[in-house]
Prior knowledge:
By secondary structure, this protein is α/β, with parallel strands linked by helices. The protein folds into 3 domains: 2-41 and 216-290 and 399-450, FAD/NAD(P)-binding domain; 45-66 and 82-88 and 207-212 and 292-387, Polyamine Oxidase, Chain A, domain 2 (Alpha-Beta Complex), CATH 3.90.660; 109-196, Guanine Nucleotide Dissociation Inhibitor, domain 1 (Orthogonal Bundle), CATH 1.10.405. Helices cover 34% and strands 21% of the residues. The chain has a 7-stranded mixed sheet with strand order 8-7-17-18-19-16-20. β7 (90-95) and β8 form a beta hairpin. The radius of gyration is 22 Å and the shape is globular. It comes from Mycolicibacterium pulveris (Mycobacterium pulveris). InterPro entries: Amino_oxidase, FAD/NAD-bd_sf, Flavin_amine_oxidase, Flavin_MAO.
Amino acid sequence: MHIDTDVAVIGAGLAGLAAARALRRAGVDVVVLEARDRVGGRTLNHRLGDPFGDTVVEVGGQWIGPNHTRIRALIDELRIATFDTHDAGAKLWEHDGRVRRYRGEVPKAGPMQLADVQIALTRLERMARRIDPAAPWSAKRALEWDRQTVASWVQRHVRTALGRSFINLACEAVWAADAADLSLLHLLTYCSSNHGLTQLISTRGGAQQTRIVGGAQAISTALAAELGDVVHLGVAVRSIRCRDRVELDSEAATVRAKRVIVAMSPALAGRLSYDEPLPADRDQLTQRMPNGSVIKCMAVYDEPFWRADGLSGQGVSLSGPVKVFFDNSPPSGKPGVLLGFLEGNQAREFARLDPAARRRAVVDCFTRMYGRRAAQPVEYVEKVWAADEWTRGCYGAFLPPNTWTTHGHALREPVGPIHWAGAETAVESMGYMDGAVASGERAAAEVLAAL
């Protein structure tokens, strides 16, 4: 194919599709180029086998929270229904070889341990309020916070073993990374962008509150249907040349445009060939923004048997390898679906195993938490996101120490006719589907102003 257009968008995830939709509605000629054979990016539905063939589960992003206003407005406009994550009943946590029940967001523990966790959360929340997520490098203590990892901060400021384990677990659950990988400034920036760490780890009233009927990929599918034949699948752009017009090359198509929006994670955007070469700050940034490591695993049962036991299906384990659990059943309640995440070091370690061994390890975790009935799922589903050719890790990218303050200003800054979108570039709801939509709309506004 040879295509001439006003604007080319690389990537048909939520960010790219939202950008294309905004441009199309403004009367701009646009094309969307997607390397995969599907739309949706890091959202992906999986249809279960018989006898549950009419049920989908999400092996990618799936949750929206009460502060996710942009994607909520988009869902309403597309007439897509939502439902609440199952939250009724007690939660479980595994510690020191025992599984205990608890309610609330923090597991039961001794008063000193609980106080330690609460003091750490309060300190982090207070520090995050000093950060402008649009320019975290401008904070008064930005250099100090960016030169240390979350792990080093925890070592100095959190006194109990349980408190340290809780903050480390939060890093794995939110960033799919280890506390030793993560800049403290990045944690604070992300928390500032998302109304605090408590919001990020909460279900009711938090970032895991709401799910999409029919799976989150249905949002991208609806957007693509609205855009029609401007969306081209199986077009893997390899290079961007900036001449009098922008020229995009792939094996399937050559596209010429006035402007281009790259709606990809920074790590993948950095793998494209650029002529003229990218400025050093932007290129160095993409080299220093790895994606997280996560394997999303689900065991399917005839019914959610844990609900009859008074359990919500939510839980945390300090033993692992699965450390975070959810009830991921459909709105009808059948089949029952237990969801568990392998994250950070656990994801990297278990990605090296054969699928059968990995399944046994995950189902063993479900069995320890929820009893013998969890040992025999009728179906097992997983997605190793680091092995996905066009993703190479989830949930998103994170910044290690000494990156926000040295190269962070290049994250959203256009390079000539090249603009950047993606959940990582969002000022509000950074890293979430809501942030992806916002980033696409922001990039579209930049392009419209330039045109």
